[in-house]
Design a protein that fits this description.
DNA binding, two-stranded antiparallel sheet, Multidrug-efflux Transporter Regulator, Chain: A, Domain 2, 2 domains, mainly alpha, 3% strand
């Protein structure tokens, strides 16, 4: 299918499709006339990219997942590990954000401002 059809079916922009191709998340075949032809499996790949992005995966992580799925279906225990690792990262980010929230809250309640030269800036873990 041509890029216009892929854009229609995925509701993505041409720029996004081209960016995914540049990042080697999807691939096309260049026809003799110079037009790019995207295989039917590109629709499933784009759906996987969207789902993974919505779950918080980076494009780099998604590229690794796509490479695994290109070889074979990912075993359930490996999918579990991937999800658990992402949960661990999210839990760590939540902890950091909660710490930042507590510090900002203290500053709004009268603690000395850490943005002045004479106030030390607390370290985050």
């Amino acid at each position: 299918m041509l890029i216009g059809e892929l854009v229609k079916q995925t509701n993505l922009s041409r720029d996004t499709i081209r960016f995914y191709e540049k990042m080697q998340l999807i691939h096309s075949i260049t026809r003799n006339n110079g037009y790019k032809d995207y295989p039917e499996q590109t629709l499933q790949q784009v759906q996987l990219i969207r789902t993974a992005k919505n779950l918080g995966f980076s494009l780099h992580e998604i590229k690794q997942i796509l490479a695994m799925t290109a070889q074979q279906e990912i075993p359930a225990d490996q999918v579990h590990t991937i999800f658990q690792e992402k949960l661990d990262v999210i839990d760590e980010k939540i902890a950091q954000l909660n710490q930042i929230k507590m510090m900002l809250s203290r500053f709004t309640q009268g603690e000395p401002c850490p943005l002045r030269k004479d106030c030390p800036i607390p370290e985050l873990n």
